[in-house]
Amino acid sequence: MANKEASVAELTEKFQSSTAVLLTEYRGLTVAQLKTLRKSIAADATFAVVKNTLTKIAANNAGISSFDDELAGPSAIAFVHGDPVAVAKSLRDFAKANPLLVIKSGYFDGNPLSADEVNKLADLESREVLLAKLAGAFKASLFGAAYLFNAPLAQAVRTVDALREKQEAGN
């Protein structure tokens, strides 16, 4: 009994400290395949095989009731502590290569996600790519501004130079 309470407390803490939670079913996957999946998301998430009844209690303790009907069959959860988009992409890509992994649902930013919404999350670009695009846009804007500020100055220099040459030619 105490062991179950400790497991529920640990799972509740994982639900509360995660930026996102993605629920999967892994029926038929081998231990080696699960190990490969864990490695692929290790930088941004932990992937844990869970007991459905204890997980339901822990999720409810954390204020998440959207998994109640989904917790059936062999379940595993990705507790995301990094980039949710990267984890969703990794899970989707792994599921394409290993159809026995089924993405059932998720929970992100205080909202339940359907399996389709998790796939849409996976379609987004990663945080790094978005930041790089933003930095590129800023750089282009700054370059454009610098060009605009320098253009009148360069034109003034050319005009003064032309006037000077004209004056020298007239003398």
From TrEMBL:
rRNA-binding keyword on record: yes
One BP annotation, GO: translation
SUPFAM superfamilies reported in the protein's UniProt record: Ribosomal protein L10-like
Gene3D superfamilies cross-referenced by the UniProt entry: 3.30.70.1730, 6.10.250.290
Superkingdom assignment: Bacteria
InterPro entries attached to this UniProt entry: Ribosomal_uL10, Ribosomal_uL10-like_sf, Ribosomal_uL10_bac, Ribosomal_uL10_bac_type, Ribosomal_uL10_CS_bac
Gene Ontology molecular function: large ribosomal subunit rRNA binding; structural constituent of ribosome
UniProt xrefs under Pfam families: Ribosomal_L10 (PF00466)
Any GO CC annotation of this UniProt entry: large ribosomal subunit
UniProt keyword annotations, A-Z: Ribonucleoprotein, Ribosomal protein, RNA-binding, rRNA-binding
UniProt subunit comment: Part of the ribosomal stalk of the 50S ribosomal subunit. The N-terminus interacts with L11 and the large rRNA to form the base of the stalk. The C-terminus forms an elongated spine to which L12 dimers bind in a sequential fashion forming a multimeric L10(L12)X complex.
Family of the protein in this entry: Belongs to the universal ribosomal protein uL10 family.
Annotated function: Forms part of the ribosomal stalk, playing a central role in the interaction of the ribosome with GTP-bound translation factors.
Name the record gives this protein: Large ribosomal subunit protein uL10
